[in-house]
Amino acid sequence: MNHLRGIYTIWYRDLLRVWRDKLRMASFLAFPLLFLVVFGSGLSSTMGMLAPGVDFSKFMFPGIIGMTVLMTSFMSGVSIVWDREFGFLKEVLVAPVSRVAVAAGKTLGGATIALIQGCLILLFAPLFGLTLSPGVLPQLLPTMFLVACALSAMGIFLASLIKSLEAHQAVVQLLMFPMIFLSGVFFPVDNVPAWMNVLVKINPATYSVDPIRQLMLGPESASALGITIFGHTMTIGEDLMIVAGFGLIMIILAMWSFGSQE
Q1: pTM of the model
Q2: Which domain, by its residues, includes 231?
Q3: Beta-bridge partners for 229
Q4: In whole angstroms, what is the distance from residue 28 CA to residue 26 CA?
Q5: CA-based nearest residue to 158, from 257, 67, 242, 17
Q6: Count of domains in the chain?
Q7: Residue 50: helix, strand or coil by DSSP?
Q8: To bridge 211 with a disulfide, which of 44, 68, 106, 239 should be the other Cys (CB 3.0-4.6 Å)?
């Protein structure tokens, strides 16, 4: 029971911190919307139709949802670095709460914030010509949350190893932007150079964006724009299995890292 209370307290603290920081919430909304307006609307006529009934704006919107979840999840680890610099993390680690609970609470907190941000962007879908049926949302929201948990665990693990805010910012940018650009957010990944194809296939963000796009665009478009491995087009279930496996490894590493903190 103490472990569950500790997880809840850490989760609630992270949510409360973001809720009170309205500027941070606004910036996380403005950044993806800027991409949608500038690239999606601006290049839609130039790029033409990428699949039957799917122009560049429709193709890009699910990718932006994935990008929002990825960025918010990844950046959730900054709270750990911040707490370490101001001494709060030391108080948490000496509290009568297991360090496994600390890692779990931080991961769930970051994932919840990322899910909320992704849902806020989702409200703009009709403006870009996407209409979601009621049956899609019960599948889409758990998918987004699973993706958020996996990437938040990765962000928490990395942040647990970093000692300063400056180093954290540099490392996050070095990893996050290549992951975004190589995940199929901005272009289809089925016709890229061989060396880039390898990077796309080993990128966990690729399997995070693909199921969101398949759910939002439908199976016909997914078959034309999806990820193929050795000629096999990945299904939503296969994508999510990879994401879940990656997330499990990351949360285990995060828990191990917190357990070895002094």
Answers
A1: 0.86
A2: 2-259
A3: 232
A4: 5
A5: 257
A6: 1
A7: strand
A8: 239
